[in-house]
Structure prediction request, 200 residues.
Amino acid sequence: MKTVFASNNVHKLEEVRKILYPMEILGLRDIGFHHEIDEKGTTLEANSLLKAQVVWQWLVGQGLDTDISGVFADDTGLEIAALNGAPGVYSARWAGEPSDDGRNRQKALASLMGMQDRSARFRTVITWIDVDGAQQVEGIVEGRIATAESGAGGFGYDSLFIPQGHNTTFAALPATEKNRISHRARALCALRDTILTNND
Ligand code: IMP
Prediction:
């Protein structure tokens, strides 16, 4: 059976494939879905549901391939304690449109300039949809925002985020370590252990 991950983000797709290996994961390009999804929700839960629903309904409209067991989507936010949880659901476009990871990181550094409390967390909400309906799981990793960027790996805010128990950013850790402890890894493990296992 194949599973569709409702994302065009190559970094996310790579992480998801590694974490869920040996499951066969198709991205949106693999299924021929080329539409933009307007992430207009005001929570991670709403946007994750919206993305999964749009792609699921499109697949059903195409005549669902019997080899596809379901669709899942992730929505992720960086929640900075001193900023009352901002940017949260607005993490992708925090520094304005179009979304720009470099400008977002600069905004994070500028917003925390001179602040003692740099604690933050990544939160991922995954929505799974199949013929039985929709279910959600969550993954969280606690950590803090570094005072400068470091590390060459990862994407998004990775070069600023130091996970609890480490002294370097996600971007400076081996991918295997990020994929063991990250918000996305935790949400995907919950997906695999609670939803996918029960669907066998
Ligand atoms: P979205 O879930 O694709 O909407 O991502 C929201 C924002 O968080 C974007 O700016 C992403 O680059 C960033 N982001 C998502 N996942 C990660 C991650 O694992 N590490 C660092 N940044 C991430």
The mean pLDDT is 95. The chain has one domain: 2-199.
